[in-house]
Predict the structure.
Amino acid sequence: MISAIVVAAGKSSRTGDTNKLMLPFGDSTILGTVIYNLTKSDVDEIVLVLQPDNELENSINDTEKIKITYNDSPQDGLTSSIQLGIEKANPDNACLVCLADMPLIKANDYNLLINRLLNDNSKVIITPFKDGITGNPVLFSNHFRADILELKQMNGCKPVLTANHHYLKKIDVESDAYFTDIDTLDQYKNLFWS
């Protein structure tokens, strides 16, 4: 069983007054597209981490797969949102930690990682890998739940990957979607003009 943790509680400060996750993308928004693609994948539940009173919640269509939780202190950093998502997720599930600003990742891209875990069913961390670079999302088997919840630094799960590098499986991928996030308006515009 797989829980997708979608981290969407950041300030989106590099896009000025515009919340990048609300920018139009396809028939939806950036966040709406990420959620839609996850609902079409083999994840069993989606835990969406938002700031309280956030307009993003209005852009999500109700679905049985989605649980929403709120980070009252998003300024504490990325790890705080990941930890809240994992606390809300089914404690028996593996966790697919997803960034909310990567709308190019399709359901079959998520499934490529998920199927590798389901076929392995051991203590493992799975990451997409291309041209010497590790991408996102990162899939943690249930064995790493406590390690992530115990993290004190707030810049993500890299310390867990570093400490457990012998459990890391890098999956060679062809798609650039695993490496394409949207941090600025220029990056957003380039997706449509490149």
The beta strands are 2-7, 24-25, 28-29, 45-50, 66-70, 94-99, 125-130, 133-134, 138-140, 168-172.
